[in-house]
Amino acid sequence: MSRTVIGAFDSRESAEKAINDLRRKGFEKDISILAKDDHSRENARGADTPYSGGDSITDGASTGGIVGGLVGLAAGAGALAIPGVGPLLAAGPIAGLLSGAATGGIAGGLADYGIPAERGRFFEDKIKQGSILVTVKCDDTKAQEASGVLNQYGGKNVEIH
């Protein structure tokens, strides 16, 4: 049976560490990333300078340092405009679901990914507040391992659905 493990990160660095560890453990094709394309939050906190290009497949679509390096860690990245959220970067398998569910917002896309509607709205709010959402699609036997990795690197509200 397929499961979706989901968690929210407050910093790009923590999300990057979790994603890199997940990739080392064999989850590479199953990782998705969602974040607002808003570099002003990162700059306001005095964190890194905005990503300046190079290897990202969304190079030119985003100037935000918050996800610039992250989108290179998952396949299928793209920029979307979600009503009520604004510019959003989505990478990984969930990117396709969200592009088809733009009118339903993030919660609608997450519902298609196996996240209950109430929790989808919760995570949509987390993204609106600036969190970076990381999801991992996996089978039952690997869900606890993926959840442990997200928790280890500071993921908040880590859940298995």
How would you describe this structure to a colleague?
The protein has helices at 12-24, 39-44, 94-100, 105-112, 117-128, 140-152; strands at residues 2-9, 31-36, 78-82, 86-91, 132-139, 156-160. Strands 3-4-2-5-1-6 form a six-stranded antiparallel beta sheet, with helices on both faces. With 161 residues, it is an alpha+beta fold. Helix content is 37%, strand content 24%.
**Strand percent estimate:** 15-25%
Low-confidence sequence ranges = 39-68
Q: Work out the radius of gyration.
A: 14 Å
H/E element sequence: EHEHEEHHHEHE
Number of helices: 6
Overall tally of domains: 1
Task: Name a few traits of the molecule.
six-stranded antiparallel beta sheet
Furnish the topology, listing elements before pairings.
Elements: E1 2-9, H1 12-24, E2 31-36, H2 39-44, E3 78-82, E4 86-91, H3 94-100, H4 105-112, H5 117-128, E5 132-139, H6 140-152, E6 156-160
Helix pairs in contact: 1-6, 3-4, 4-5
How is this structure best summarized?
By secondary structure, this protein is of the alpha+beta class. It is built from six helices and six strands; from the N terminus they run βαβαββαααβαβ. A six-stranded antiparallel β-sheet has the order 3-4-2-5-1-6, sandwiched between helices.
